[in-house]
Structures are given as structure tokens and as C-alpha cells.
Design brief:
By secondary structure, the chain is an alpha/beta fold. The chain has five helices and nine strands; from the N terminus they run βββαβαβααββαββ. A seven-stranded mixed β-sheet has the order 3-1-2-4-5-6-7. A two-stranded antiparallel ribbon has the order 8-9. The radius of gyration is 16 Å and the shape is globular.
């Protein structure tokens, strides 16, 4: 079987700051939005960054210990919806993990688009946090970047965490790798610019 490839900007195999529990995070490369003061502008370019097959990435996720779910961000995940659907379906065939996805599109826009690839991916998502990042609406709260963004509980699995998605205190983690560091989390307003990768 031939597996699709994902264009990945970055991966973090374990974090506790992008949704409930310990999560494996995938940031896809490429975005169709141009949000002012984007936290990761280098991940918006439509260029090949790290191409990895859905099979290989699914194996990385399945090897990660102690995670309860996957968080997908970017970039813009809906531009790679077909491959993401294949990835999540492959993982869930072997292990039931929750899925949280950030997108600059609103859920209404995604539903109105009537794209079967996006619809298939959404059928695998438990929580979608939708809407573009609006810097002036960054209220420094929750697991979303700005107050216009909403958390939609598509499966109901995290409905008890609804308040956390909107009002929790933000935390960040700094992960050190061999020759670089990665800041993970929703950017607090007051964080120094030089910490943003």
C-alpha cells in the first residue's frame, strides 16, 4: 500500500500545554492565512520542509509513551486534510488516542466547503479550535490564540474541559534538542520576541 506524505514543520513527542493530558504535537508546513504577529511565520511558507509518510509518522506516534492524544496545528492543517485523515485513521486502528486540531478556517466554512477530504478528516477530530489568529483579540487566556477562536467539541470527549480551552492560565514549555530549541504552547502576550522560533 502506498502511503501519502505529510509536509511537517515540526514535531514534539510529548507536551502538556496544548490540550488535556500528555500530547504528541504535529505542526504542518504551509498556510494560506497571513495573520498579523503569527507565532511561527516560517511555518507558513508553501515549501517542502520535512516530508514524512503517514505510515512512518504513525509509527512515531505509536512509540510515544504515556500520551493520551495528538494535537495538530501549523501552518494550516486543512491544506493537508487527506494525509492527516490517513495518519489519524492508521494510528487509531492500533490505539485509541484523542485528536485536537487548530485551523484558521471556521468550522462553518469547512462544512460549507463540502470537501470530502476535509469532511473525512473532521470525522476523526474530537476538538477543533477554529478561526484566524487576531493579535488585538489575544486576551492571554486558554488553549486558543485569540478570543474570536472557538473550541468545538465534535465528539464530546473533552466537553468537561470547555472552560480550560477558553480561560485557563497559559503555560509554555521549552524543549531542547541537539542544535535548537522549540517553544511549545499558546504564546503569552508578554513573552519576549526572541524566544519565538
Amino acid at each position: 500500500m502506498r502511503h501519502r506524505k505529510l509536509n511537517i514543520a515540526e514535531i514534539c513527542p510529548s507536551t502538556k500545554v496544548l490540550g488535556p493530558g500528555n500530547r504528541f504535537v504535529i505542526w504542518v508546513q504551509g498556510c494560506c492565512f497571513d495573520c498579523y504577529n503569527c507565532v511561527s511565520p516560517e511555518w507558513t511558507y508553501m515549501e517542502d520542509k520535512m516530508l514524512i509518510s503517514t505510515e512512518d509518522l504513525s509509527q512515531e506516534i505509536l512509540k510515544a509513551r504515556g500520551i493520551e492524544g495528538i494535537t495538530i496545528s501549523g501552518g494550516e492543517p486543512m491544506l493537508q486534510a487527506e494525509a492527516l485523515h490517513e495518519l489519524v485513521r492508521t494510528v487509531r486502528y492500533q490505539k485509541q488516542l484523542s485528536v485536537i486540531c487548530y485551523t484558521g478556517f471556521t468550522l462553518e466554512q469547512l462544512k460549507e466547503a463540502g470537501d470530502p477530504k476535509i469532511d473525512a478528516f473532521l470525522s476523526q477530530v474530537d476538538v477543533i479550535i477554529d478561526g484566524p489568529y487576531v493579535d488585538r483579540l489575544n486576551d492571554n487566556k486558554g488553549w486558543r490564540g485569540s478570543s474570536n477562536q472557538q473550541a468545538h467539541f465534535l465528539s464530546g470527549i473533552y466537553k468537561d474541559f470547555a472552560e480550560e480551552f477558553i480561560n485557563r492560565k497559559r503555560d509554555i514549555e521549552i524543549h531542547l534538542f541537539h542544535n535548537y530549541y522549540l517553544m511549545v504552547g499558546i504564546k503569552p502576550k508578554e513573552i519576549a520576541k526572541e524566544l519565538i522560533i
